[in-house]
Amino acid sequence: MNLKIYNTNIELHYSGAVFIKQMSTLIIADVHLGKIEHFRKHGSAIPPILSLKNYIELDRVINHFQPETLIFLGDLFHSTKNSDWQRFTKWVKLHHHLKFRLVIGNHDLISNREIENLGIETSTEVYLQDFKLTHHPEVTEDYFNICGHIHPGFHLKGSAKQSLKLACFYHKPQQLILPAFGAFTGKFIISPQENEHVYAIAEQNVLKIL
Length: 210
Fold this sequence. Notes:
The structure is a single chain. The protein has 4 helices and 16 strands. The protein is of the alpha/beta class and 210 residues long. Helix 4 links the parallel strand 6 and strand 7 (120-123). The chain is globular and about 50 Å long.
């Protein structure tokens, strides 16, 4: 699925990522690495294989688009350091050819210095031509806002009381909110208003719902 915003083509990928080919830039929100280990540490019976799924999906989308830059829109690592931190540092080193940037989110508790020591540039916002990239959604007239944070989802209802909750891209007039990339994140069900659009993720497809 492709959107054209300010004469820039933006590809919406079923992983939840966005790719801007003209800038060779991949944008991902809310991976929440370490979240599964955080909950397991506190007694939750969550299969550890879900942690590996995040890295498998990251590798898959990187290999597909071959970007020069990867920007994380916050909540990259869910908590303070845990057993997933070492895995993450090794993963970053394996992708040393990429330029990494992190827009700090509310769950990014590890110090900026430690993140930057891995070669990841940190900031509270990133400007790319006509686009302002943030973690929390922002309303701005001068730039188109690409953001994350709310983990948007859409509730599809059928005529025979069937229902399905799908992760989605939420497109407002001056804003695109990305779905959470992480495998263990949950969804916030949105209620689109007039002139707002929903692009839902269904298996390996992105479908315009509204």
